[in-house]
Predict the structure.
Amino acid sequence: MDYFEFLDQERALIIKEPRCPQPWINYLSNGRMHAFVSQAGGGFAWWKSATVYRLTRYRQHLAPMDGPGFYIYLREEDGTVWSPSWRPAETELDKWKAIHRPGISSFEATYNGLHAQLDLWVAPDHDALLWELKLSNPSNRSRKLDAFAYVELSQMQWTDEFNWGYYIKYMLRTDYDEATRSVRYLFHHQSHPNISEVPLVYFAGSEVDTWCGSREDFLGSYGSESCPKAISKGNLNNRGISCGEPAAALHRQLCLETGQSHSLRFALGVEPGALLEPERCKQAIDGLLPTLLSKEGFDEQRERCEKWWTTHLEKLSCSLPEPELQRMIETWSPVNTVTTARFSRSVNATAPGIRGIGFRDTCQDMIAIAYRRPDWALDKLRSLLTEQHADGRANHTSYPIEKSPSNESLHSDNHLWLPMLAHAIAVETGDPGFLEETASFYTNKESATIWEHLMRALRFTESHLGSHNIPLTLRSDWNDIIGKFSKAGRGESLFASFQYVYVLRQMLALAQWSGRNDDADTIREWLHKQTTALDACAWDGGWWRRGFDDNGAPVGSRSSPFGKIFLNPQSWAVLARVGSREQQEAGMAAAAEHLLTDAGLKILSPGFKTWPEESNPFSGYGPGTGENGAIFCHANTWTIMAEALLGHADTAWEYFRRLVPENVIHRFGVNTYGADPHAWLSNIVGPENTRFGWGNVVHITGTAAWMDIVATQYLLGIRSELTGLRIDPQIPTHWTGFTVRRQVRGHWIHLKAKRSGHQRLQLNGHIMDPSQSIPWQRLAAENEIVAEM
Ligand code: NOJ
């Protein structure tokens, strides 16, 4: 079955079959008000935090899956009911498609001669999800129908709702404001973490005849979302609730003559201050709705939403011989990195949104944002610094909006991602000034300059080395479950060591660039010590080891029965420039030999056994899943980067090509892969598992950031460095070349990369040295660069 196609001119994913194996979702957000919506209209809305201000409900793991959502019911004169998003009515439609565009989702359906289009997006200037329903009647008879819009409301504090919902049902009410045609929802639970912020929720319509504020009244007892009791009656009961299950439904009766069209507009939004400033809060909504709900109001907000995305996406475009790769690089990767920058690893169709902000995750997410929006990356860096302790380590997870206590568990890597983010900001802005800014440490007892924060991160690692002088693994490094080898606290991580060397090199460059000579000397010493330690113990003969367990035995060695070879050390040895060229090449070749599948590289091989075969297993993950041998896309990104740095253009592009979701779908089929065609995912179940090919943890993954970085900076090869712009395009042998247009530090770069058999570089007609980066001062506002290889 042909499930989808891309319309690149419109940056659109067209989904042609609503019954996808999993919800294929799109995020709609203005940075404060958020929602995701699936191809079938399922999804939920939240304001700021999906834990504290969850506005509507969604069944994350329960069946029937992918509901509730943002529902429209159209009831015909004969009682037939249908929905433009197919769900919830599930009536077979004559024509149907869903379209996900950056920030906007649409559903287009035709039923019995009547056409309906529903567009959803979040207003950039107001915290409201906007719904525009356009109905048109091209048939030769007039059509009477009743249109209903419906959302199921949540008790906002999601974990409390699960735990205490049966009491909290008494702490809410819905009613209706006639003047603004809006159902108002007040949740007055007083244990709210920030009582002054509690919002008044509204669901307003441009035209409304009847309304309902109760799920029980709308659905009826044991009523289903597909045919609610109220819809079969044809109108709503105009009743709210002062306890029970809240919902908001609006109804309008319409008659469309032949050739006539009509639009209905709805807004689901919030205004803070419902409890402590009820009058001001109500007045703000009263004042806003007439303008917002007008056609002009909607048009303006849609235009501003589109503009936001155009501005973000047009910073880099390219023309490649393979459209599957081009559309991922130009559109869907940067869309995905906006999602991870906003939601870290917390919310998707199976992740409920309560796990907070992962420190290492957010650092990586923002490295990918830095080349388009260094200001945004710097803001996030500032807030991440407040999660760093004075001894240099960083918390593992934090809850900046929820204000819950951070997870302080001790890992070998979290703090090491900080300098990487700072370096990414420095290269994109060229301004060392931010390193002088002051930021407080976690406990608030001490503050220091950003530079000092970064130095303390290094010092923490330097003071937590094991018996081989390699960083202690502690609870884990990047790999969540590697701590299994270090339960007694003596295990060492070679991954953390490679990362440390990589970071030391970046910090050395930053120190020299910003005139910090004493620190540069110290860093040089640490660098020497660490590379010496690696030289002494990291090489296993044919590839790089993964680390040492508590007893000093190597992990990821040919002597190990399971997990003989891990992917990450092979790639990071190249990124960190450790060992000889021969060792680097051999490590990468070993990765290809032992880990490569036709859908990408496994994270390790062979997978560790688990219970009951193994009483003390590596993890609960079965062989071939997750960190125990899946095709781990996040880890593949660094392999692509390493292959590019080694100048292996064919292999680098091939590894990228294999993981482009569309290509994986072609390899396994939609039903095996299951996941969205327009988003990166964390991992694909590997061949050691019977579900080989299933893609999981979609959208909210570090794969997004690194695929974006790797493709734009290492494959297309335009990379900012402190002293200049590196031009290093990788052109596979079966391509003649490609072009790229990128904005960097206010300059426009028009790169023509050509395969000619000679290494040559020209900037605006001048011959340049291709082995050197182009000094920033040589760049004009517009630059024609020709790179041959
Ligand atoms: C997902 C986690 O969110 C991330 O922090 C971790 O680095 C990867 N899994 C790899 O284990």
Remarks:
- Residues 679 and 699 are 5 Å apart (CA to CA).
- The two ends are 42 Å apart (CA to CA).
- The pocket of 1-deoxynojirimycin is lined by residues 345, 358, 360-361, 478-480, 627 (CB under 6 Å).
